[in-house]
UniProtKB/TrEMBL annotation:
Function as written in the Swiss-Prot or TrEMBL entry: Catalyzes the hydrolytic deamination of guanine, producing xanthine and ammonia.
Keywords: Hydrolase, Metal-binding, Phosphoprotein, Zinc
The protein's name in its UniProt record: Guanine deaminase
EC number(s) per entry: 3.5.4.3
Organism this protein belongs to: Pygocentrus nattereri (Red-bellied piranha)
Subunit record text: Homodimer.
Amino acid sequence: AAELAVMPVSTVYRGTLAHSTRDEALQILEDFVLGVDAEGKIAFIEEGQNVDSLSQTWGFQTSDVIQLEQHEFLMPGMVDTHIHASQYSYSGTALDLPLLDWLNTYTFPVESRYKDLDYARNVYTKVLKRTLRNGTTTACYFATIHTDASLLLGQIADDFGQRALVGKVCMDCNSTVPYYKEPLKECKDETLRFIRELLKKEYAHVKPVVTPRFAVSCSSSLLHTLGKIAKNNDLHIQSHISENKEEVKLVKQLFPDCKSYTDVYLKHDLLTDKTVMAHGCYLSDEELKIFHERGAAISHCPNSNLSLASGMLNVRNVLNHKVKLGLGTDVAGGYSPSMLDALRRAMDTSKVLSMQDAQHQTLTFEEAFRLATLGGSEALSLDDQTGNFEVGKDFDALRVNMCIPGGPVDMFPGQGPKDISLLQVNACVFDIFAGDDRNIAEVFVAGRRVVPFPDL
Ligand code: GUN
Ligand code: FE
């Protein structure tokens, strides 16, 4: 017999796959087989009828194939491109003030508590469980200014097996909470220590991200310093931009030499193809062009934008400018840690815009699905590893069950095994609009099952 030239697969699924590609916002593949290799990468995706020849090529038993039920499908794990892990403890509360007052009144006092590692461990463990259960396989986190607690967040993400970018927050000015900021020198040294120590751990899927809080909270010297650190170490960058009108006005006053909010980050070397900026509600077309030229991304955080009454991002305009775009929960400005919620709010926001402007081309469900998955992976420059089902990418996936007894979704007569196309075409719509985390039966990151939770 010919020797196997390929790595044997460790798991093979057969059933319905739903994912996005660049050309097709939602592609539904009925009766496909997907193989995952020993490293957790997708080895093949082929039509179900080829299973016998695949089993010979790849050396698996057809009896070992995991057959999905008719009321189940696999979809890519979702990518939360902007979430404050440290704010999870007060999510769902304190949404009665506009952004700048909200930060000083609620956020900074809470974040200051993370010098206490026991407090940090408690909240961060809950964040990891909650986001994974809700199908977030990749998250881009803000922690706090505290290096050790931020390192702990990285460790907990690694323990639970989530793919994560983790940022130690940098801020050296304009906080009305005097005990919640760092002098420039300390901020620089601690950022370098955070990066060094996190990289030293060699976590498979957890990486540092340079995190100036936003232009309001950072001196020009700090922004320059962070731009240099990101450049020298080829790191991701995250921050906030043009979220709220008062904030935009304040940034103009603080940086009179810069043409725009975007220009502030541009001038400080913080707008790269590994940058993701949250919100962007008030960016001009000119600024969007700069984002496109630089390959920088926007994280659309619709729940937060509505909850803090910050604004509404015109997603269509961002897409028309070919700017990389993902969705973010922005906990706790956004009250929900669920990416399904972010997807729904993104559509709500677009529908409100279409009521105000008949020319606005409403975001389709399929486009929102893509933003929550592939779009997010592009926004974080992780689309070589995750975001959809492509051979060679890591198997980051959700096994969705549309029919949990007592669960939030019902199936109706005529929607059964024999009625495959009706059911499957509606499958994602069904679950994603009507379902919740109860429908997410299993979650995988790089082939490892992370929900139900591993025994730690
Ligand atoms: N801008 C600066 N910091 C924050 C934050 O923590 N949340 C939100 N929504 N916007 C910010
Ligand atoms: Fe935020």
